[in-house]
Each structure stands twice: as C-alpha cells, then as structure tokens.
Amino acid sequence: MRHSLPPLSALRAFEATARLGSVTAAADELSVTHGAVSRQLKSLDDYFGVALFAKSGRGLVLTHHGEQLQSGVGEAFTRLRDSCAALKHEVQEAPFTLACPGSLLARWLIPRLDRLHRDLPALKLQVVVSDTEQPGKPADASATLAFTEPPWPADVEVIPLMTEQICAVVSSPLAVQIDSAQPESLFANTLLVTASRPQAWPQWASAKGLDPNALKAALQQGQGFDHLYYLIEAAVAGLGVAIAPKLLVEDDLNSGRLIAPWGSIETPARLCLLLPKHANLRRCEPLAQWLKRELKG
C-alpha cells in the first residue's frame, strides 16, 4: 500500500540502534536478544531494499539511507516518549479526588483523614462532598465512597468494601423509656426519618417482625431531616429514635452517647468505592486496601 509502514517493532529496534550505535546496547535497552534486534534490522533492509547500517570497527554506522530514515524516526520516537512521559506524570501527579456523602464524611472519614494522608501520601487525596446521600455516577471524581445496593450500574466499576448494618438508636436518657425486649416499644417515641434513606425503617421493622401499618403511622407522625447527618445529631440530642448505618454511629455507641437497644440487622447495601468505567484500578487499589483495613479495625 502507498502509505503503509514497516512494523513498529522494527522501527523501534532501528531507532534504538541508531541512537546507541550498537545492536547489543539496543537489545539491552529493549530487553530483547541481540538476534531479535538483528532480525528486525534485516527486515527493514528488506522492506526498503537498501542497507541502513554499515559496519565500522566493532560497531555500526548509518548509511546515507539510514540517516535519511533516522532523521524522521528519531524525532517521532522522541515525541512519542515525551508524550507518554507527560501523560504518565499527569496521571501520577494529579490529585485523587474522593467524593463522599456528607454524613459518611463527617462521621467516619474525617476522624481518619489525617491517618489516611500519612499512610498514602503518594495518592495526593482530595475529598469532596457528593451532592446527595444516594451515589450516582462518579463522573467528576476519581472515586465515590458510599453505601449502595446492587445491582451495580453497568457503566461504573464497583469495589465492595463491607456489608451494611443498620440499627435503631436513641440517646442514653431516652433509652430508659424503651424496652429492649420489645421492639414495638419504640412506637411510643418520635421516629426520626430522612428522605435520603426511605428504605431503612421498613427494612429494620420487617427484620424485627413489626407491624408495617403501625410503622407507617409512626413514620407519618415522625420528624423528618434532609440529611442523615442531621438525623443522627437529632438522636444524640434526644429528639427521638433514629435509624442509621452502624458504621456511622459506632463512636457514639462506644462512648455511650447513643444506645442500640435492639441490635443491628444486615441490609442488601454495601459500602463501596465506585469508579468511572475504565478507571485506573491500580491507582485506586491502595485506597481500597486501606479502607478495608480501617473497616476491619
């Protein structure tokens, strides 16, 4: 064909040999055998029908035709190397942006953020608040950390980190009014709800065998909050009974600020890292492993 090119591997062997002046040196740089480079150079001689190198002592020098080819090939490979190096530098040096719902950020990630920066300095992590408690496509972030239920979107890479557990929690003063042996005793209190997790109360009530009609009536009389973070703070303030992921209230449970009288249940949701399709998984892997260790710890 008029505009066909010889094999790129042969041009690469030619460029390295011309630049280094030695087949042996070219073979070392390319991590191939001396014979492999010699065969590639012979294929170019056959392709063009002229000799591109001539022997000079124990080395090689370019012929007139070789110099003609080297002037274009050398520049092309230099630009190719520079472009690859620039892209690699940009990818490695660019900050890794992690989007996270405000409740998860404030109640779990921020207390660990300093340790995360110390453990993974090369990641150059930047954290931003996602617009909603419900994760969507992490289009503008390197990854999104969020609770989400399968099936996973086809256009998102998902790294599951842990199974979600949810629990009904109350402040310590309010707990004295609740019978831990009778989950239905919570109906005597104000239920705290958030629009971002409408499925949480029904999931928990079903697992505890509560009357769905009684739950519906209690929720209609409940106190609503836009965000899960505010919901949990309202529970800490003693405004009622809240339903929340156990992960986000563990510190409060450990300190005694909140009590989970009826334990926790497992839901279909998972805490996941969500990445754009075809994302650089190798760059995200250290973060995923760090999160898994923290969650186990």
Automatic annotation (TrEMBL):
Coiled coil: none annotated. It comes from the Bacteria. One of its GO terms (biological process) is DNA-templated transcription. It holds the Pfam family HTH_1. InterPro entries: LysR-type_TF_proteobact-type, LysR_HTH_N, LysR_subst-bd, WH-like_DNA-bd_sf, WH_DNA-bd_sf. The keyword Transcription applies. Residues 6-63 form the HTH lysR-type domain. Keywords: DNA-binding, Transcription, Transcription regulation. The keyword NADP does not apply. GO terms for molecular function: DNA-binding transcription factor activity; sequence-specific DNA binding. Belongs to the LysR transcriptional regulatory family. PANTHER family: HTH-TYPE TRANSCRIPTIONAL REGULATOR, HTH-TYPE TRANSCRIPTIONAL REGULATOR TRPI. This is LysR family transcriptional regulator.
